[in-house]
């Protein structure tokens, strides 16, 4: 059987991208497949080419994840787009987004856009944030969609990945998408005209780009509260750098327990106070706990 990727799913239309010849077919699912599950953009499918335009879908591979918004399966990377300014950088929002995508098992990476508008001192400030998130265990890329800087590196980085963009309004998600895909996206305007908009829950498209990479035309969350997805007690599992430490109690919430190695690490400067404070804010703990640890 041949392997394809569902890149377009709208009502009865299923667009299947076949890896071996990079052609797009209309996917027709066999009855037994439909019985098993729904088919989404991002699904890897197995089947046979029936004719020039048609691919019979015989089976769907098990999904590694599924993002409800947008409805895309098997997302390898979520590009969480932020800017230092315009709009102003909001690290609390970033930490919520990172925790949620971590929870959804969709590997968030941080993309700082609009580096073209930064003066020297702002560049230094961005550098500080970059180092902070890198030491927390996140990949950080810096780009300017306007000037097309860092885009080739980003493409290289996303080789073979299914990705989606997320992040607040105005940070340049559509601009980055256009740069990656290399076309002005007419689909966007069309869908806006018909008022189905971009936040629609059907009709997600994955655009092929670069070297077998794919990116969703609909962005993920622009803002999110981690507690909407997970219990207070779980948040600690989605702060990557916390997992490096073993506290006295395995279910330590890193707040008031004795023998907490995470707090020890904050004190030593191995975990940033900014991240730790946001953790406390997310779980609605008293942030004065951080005061004694952070000078
Ligand atoms: N200076 C500068 N401006 C940019 C850059 N990228 C995007 N912009 C501008 O920022 C504004 C917002 O860009 P969009 O691409 O629409 O941002 P978005 O994140 O898709 O916004 P929403 O659709 O509201 O979610 C536009 O005026 C862009 O021209 C950049 O790299 N540098
Ligand atoms: Zn602890």
From TrEMBL:
It is found in: Cytoplasm. The keyword Mitochondrion does not apply. GO terms for molecular function: GTP binding; GTPase activity; metal ion binding; rRNA binding. Its EC number is 3.6.1.-. GTP binds at residues 113-116, 167-175. GO terms for cellular component: cytoplasm. Zn(2+) binds at residues 247, 252, 254, 260. GO terms for biological process: ribosomal small subunit biogenesis. Keywords: Cytoplasm, GTP-binding, Hydrolase, Metal-binding, Nucleotide-binding, Ribosome biogenesis, RNA-binding, rRNA-binding, Zinc. CDD domains: YjeQ_EngC. Its main location: cytoplasm. It holds the Pfam family RsgA_GTPase. InterPro entries: G_CP_dom, NA-bd_OB-fold, P-loop_NTPase, Ribosome_biogen_GTPase_RsgA, RsgA_GTPase_dom. The keyword Cell cycle does not apply. Residues 64-224 form the CP-type G domain. HAMAP family: GTPase_RsgA. Monomer. Associates with 30S ribosomal subunit, binds 16S rRNA. This is Small ribosomal subunit biogenesis GTPase RsgA.
């Amino acid at each position: 059987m041949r392997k394809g990727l569902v890149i377009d799913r709208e009502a009865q239309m299923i667009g299947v991208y076949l890896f071996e010849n990079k052609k797009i077919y209309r996917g027709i699912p066999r009855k037994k497949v439909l019985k098993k599950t729904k088919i989404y953009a991002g699904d890897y499918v197995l089947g046979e080419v029936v004719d020039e335009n048609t691919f019979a879908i015989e089976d769907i591979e098990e999904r590694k994840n599924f993002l409800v918004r947008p409805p895309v399966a098997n997302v390898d990377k979520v590009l969480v787009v932020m800017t230092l300014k315009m709009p102003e950088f909001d690290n609390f929002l970033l930490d919520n987004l990172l925790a949620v995508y971590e929870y959804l098992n969709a590997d968030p990476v941080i993309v700082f856009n609009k580096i073209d508008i930064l003066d020297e001192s702002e560049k230094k400030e961005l550098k500080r944030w970059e180092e902070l998130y890198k030491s927390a265990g996140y990949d950080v890329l810096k780009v300017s969609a306007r000037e097309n800087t860092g885009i080739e590196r980003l493409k290289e980085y996303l080789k073979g990945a299914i990705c989606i963009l997320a992040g607040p309004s105005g940070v340049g998600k559509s601009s980055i998408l256009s740069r990656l895909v290399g076309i002005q996206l007419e689909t966007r305007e069309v869908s806006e005209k018909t008022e189905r908009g971009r936040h629609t829950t059907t009709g997600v498209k994955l655009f092929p780009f670069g070297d077998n990479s794919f990116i969703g035309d609909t962005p993920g969350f622009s803002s999110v509260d981690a507690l909407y997805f997970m219990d207070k007690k779980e948040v600690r599992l989605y702060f990557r750098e916390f997992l490096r430490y073993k506290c006295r109690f395995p279910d330590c919430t890193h707040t008031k327990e004795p023998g907490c190695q995470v707090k020890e690490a904050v004190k030593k400067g191995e975990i940033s106070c900014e991240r730790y404070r946001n953790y406390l804010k997310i779980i609605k703990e008293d942030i004065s706990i951080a005061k004694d640890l952070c000078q």
